[in-house]
Amino acid sequence: MVVGVVGLGLIGGSFAKAATRAGHSVAVWNRTRATSEAAVADGSAAAVLEEDMTSAVGSPDVYLVSLPPSAVVPWIDAHQSAFKNGAVLVDATGVKGSICEAMRKYAYDDTPWTFVGGHPMAGKEVSGYANATADLFRGASMILTPYPSCGRGPLDMLEAFFRTLGFGNVVFTTPERHDEMIALTSQLAHVVSSAYIQEPLAKEHAGFSAGSFYDMTRVARLDPGVWTDLFLANREALSSVLGGLIERLCGFKEAIDTGDAERLRDLLERGRAVIESMPPTYKSISRQ
User: Fold this and answer.
1) pTM of this prediction?
2) Domains, the chain, ranges and CATH?
3) Is the model's pLDDT at 28 over the cut of 70?
4) Over 50: is that where the pLDDT of 287 sits?
5) Are 149 and 114 contacting, i.e. CB atoms less than 8 angstroms apart?
6) Which residues pair with 29 in a beta bridge?
């Protein structure tokens, strides 16, 4: 299969490396052509994908569009006439509602190619092609948000394809459900980590910190531009879960300020009960 990878940051670069390792013919496109040429030179890709969507290994059967949220739709709009009949495009952004709404114009007409919203649940606290790795997706979930008009053919193909890249699970859902859940499981965690590390005492943690500090601060080393786009693109869902967290934190603060041991114990017990009720698969997840 010919795989076109568009955008060679951490995710796109890892897609290219994983697809090449899996035996696919990979053609890459990047805003800075030198990065595409570097990927070919280091063996992560077989060819550079030209502006007319041709390459030395042919036109892609599958495109993995790994661009920032604000760049996905403009790039597809600019190249939509060059995709070959039967091609399937999957984006990799962390927000699906706005992307899928903008791409709906291609979902219910005679467009000869198919778009499916996607989001790989994998990453690192660092960004850029230099940090890309073929193992990034090993055991991770790939979320897909197809339109109702999408037939089973493309979806069955994508499920099999993503498993060749190392994904352990392919989840099908709606854009709305995706954004609601990702606001909690990813975006809120990044907000909390960033706010937590800004406590002035954090700079003096050496000798006083262990695993808990690491767990709370790891994802604060984010790309501010990328995450600003993601937060604002999903502002409604993120604001909702952030408001709930603030309310619960205020409850903890009030119990501590007033010395209310019974209430504090109850709040802590609620959290313990929730984590203990979660399935074993959650508890066995290791750090990325």
Assistant:
1) 0.88
2) 2-173 (3.40.50.720), 178-283 (1.10.3660.10)
3) yes
4) no
5) no
6) 6
